[in-house]
Every structure is written in C-alpha cells, then in structure tokens.
Amino acid sequence: DRCAYNQGYQEGSSIHGYRFRDFVSLGEADDFNPPDSAVMGCHTEERKLFVTQKANGILGVAPSQGAFPTILQDIFSTADISRRQFAICLASEGGSLRVGRAHEEMHTSAVTWVNMSTTSYYLVDLTSMGIGSAPLPPMDFGRTLVDSGTTFVYFPSRVFSTVVEQVLEYCGTGACSGPVIKALDGTFCVDLPENIPRHQLDLMPLLSFTFGHGAATTTWWGSQFMYWNRVEQQWCSTIRDNGGGVPETVLGAAWMVGHDIVFDLDTNRMGVADAHCVNHTQRPGDDKPLQELAIIDSAVDPTNVAIVLGVIIAAGCFSRLLRRRTRQNRPPAEGSWAPPTGATDDELSSLQQNLSPGDPEWANAPVLE
Question: How far apart are CA 202 and CA 140, in angstroms?
C-alpha cells in the first residue's frame, strides 16, 4: 500500500523511498506556526552525493505536474495565508525561505517584477544582457529557467563565449579587481587571495539582465557571480557553457545570491530585489553548526513564516552541495531509472540498511513522480 518515488541524476546520485503524509510547521518552534498536512518522502536509499554531502534531502519548490503536490502546494491549500507567494533569499552561506510574502525587511532596492510561466520549472523571458555600460549584441538565450537546484548560471555556447570575451576585454584595461585570466573550462578567474574583502570583487564589470524586451532589468555584481575556487586557488566566475544544442539558459543559485527572489503564483510574476540576505552557518539560537541540511530545488500568519535553510552556498561548497540540472543532467523520465555503477555492492551495503531497488517489494511498488 506504499507509493515509491525515485529521483536520479546522470552523474549517478539518486534517492529512493516511500511517500508518507505528516504535519509540517515552518520556522522555529517558538514561532508557534500552525502545522499543515503535507506529503513527504522517506529515503530508504541514497547514493553518491546524497551520501557524502552535508545536505540530507531536497525541499522541492518547483511546480508539481504529478499525482502528488509539493509541500508548498499543500501549505498553500491548507494554511491561512493571504496569497500563494514564496521568496528565497540566499546569502554566501545559507539563506531563508519565506512562504506568504517577501523578505521586505532585507531589501535594499525596489522589487523588479518579471512575467513568469510555470511548467515543471519557473520560466522567464530573458531577452538581452549588458556588461558594464555596454549592451551585448542580440543573441538567442532560448528558454530561461530559474532553478535554485542548479548551482551555476548556464548560457548557450554563443552567449557564454561572448560574455567571457567581453569581460576579458573590459578587464584588460586594468579596471577590474586584479589580473583576469581565462580558465581551462572557458570561464574567467581573477588572481586574488581568498581573504580579500568581498566588495573588492565589485570592481569586476556589472552584468545586467533584461527581461521581456526592456520591461525589466536586474543586476549581478562581481561579489555575487565570483566564488573562491579551492582547486584553482583563485576567484572564478559562476558562468558556465550550456552547450551548442537547443538554446537554453539556466539562472541557478549563484544568480540568486544577494537577491530576494519572489515567486508570485497568483499573478504569474517573479520579483527580484537586491537584499542583505542573512548568512546562516548554524541554526538560529543554537551555538552548534548545522549538521542536517536540505537543498532547495526550484515556496498561518504570513508575517511570521520564515524558515532558515541549511543550503551552504559558500564558494568552496558550490560543486558538492548542488548539482547541475540542465538538459544533460536532469532527472530521467518516470520509469527510466537504472542503478548507477559508481559504487560497489560492499560500499552500498555499508551505507544502506533498508529497502533497495533490487528487493522484490521495491519492484512491485508503484512509482509516482
């Protein structure tokens, strides 16, 4: 009588388990937020990054197209909130998710509203970009996804190479934080020590994004799009090449850092505001570092509904905590999962004590995405 689920990624990471219904209350215990009934999943098996990373689960906030609603959809349908709206405010370490309204008290600019459509993702119409005060030539960005479950920002190949070359040309005049070089993966890095004041990175050219053919423009500062690369021992950009196939842009968590991203499902709009998002390396009111974390994958009394997230977006954690989920690395279609080959049976048996896809009971369980 149990409904199974599976979520897999092409690099081999996956989670599997059964769904159950329980009561969920957002925020800290002393917020006294009323609990709401929601469907959740209990992992019975984890593989690869789900075992080794600090995050121990995924809080999905993307629109559900399946038989089961997300936790947010359950809360919207049962909680006493004034509107179907949620906001994600990510800092360099951790951040906050609020249901019912934005993080207005953290805003340092007005909210820029952009038309948004929902399928299995949140989609916006990115039409142009600028570097410094100069606009980029017209290019095809393809469909544009806003996805907090993707670490970096992925552009179609032509857009990616143009942005990198324009940044290198801009910085070639000595106007940037330090000497800027082209990295082996095609992006750019600046040769500065790790302990520089982060605001010094704002000498990098300001990147601007225009949506809806001039209807709205947002900005992305160097302190937001540069991160400390522990391998290269340099500050490198979070911009990546999404390949030369069908054009598609993914605005991942790196694009969201330092902004309050507001998803208004009643008006089908996305709001973007500059914000002093609060760093969280430990649970509020607790002197112990967070040990159990959750990845947000891209929403009572709305004035008090705020949840602190254990999403570590610090530079050195980008590649481990969140995985790229573009065309090449999105979850497979329903029923297409196959056990990855990255771990031996001995390794898995030492990590997993419960049901696995090889068990008869698993094979007979319905799979619902």
Answer: 27
- Spacing of C-alpha 152 from chain mean position: 8
Residues composing the chain: 369
Closest Cα partner for 66 from 3, 24, 115? 3
What pairs with residue 2 in β-bridges? none
8-61 residue pLDDT tens: 876 678 899 999 999 988 877 777 888 888 888 999 999 988 888 776 678 888
Rounded CA gap, 362 and 369, in Å?
15
The confidence band for 232, taking pLDDT boundaries of 50, 70 and 90, is: confident
Name the residue with tokens 């940044």: 167
Rounded CA-CA distance 369/367 in Å is 7
Q: Residue 360: pLDDT above 50?
A: no
Q: Which residues of 21-43 are buried (b: 16+ CB within 10 A; e: fewer)?
A: eeebbbbbeeeebeebebbbbeb
| Helix, strand, coil percentages, rounded to 5, for the chain | 20, 35, 45
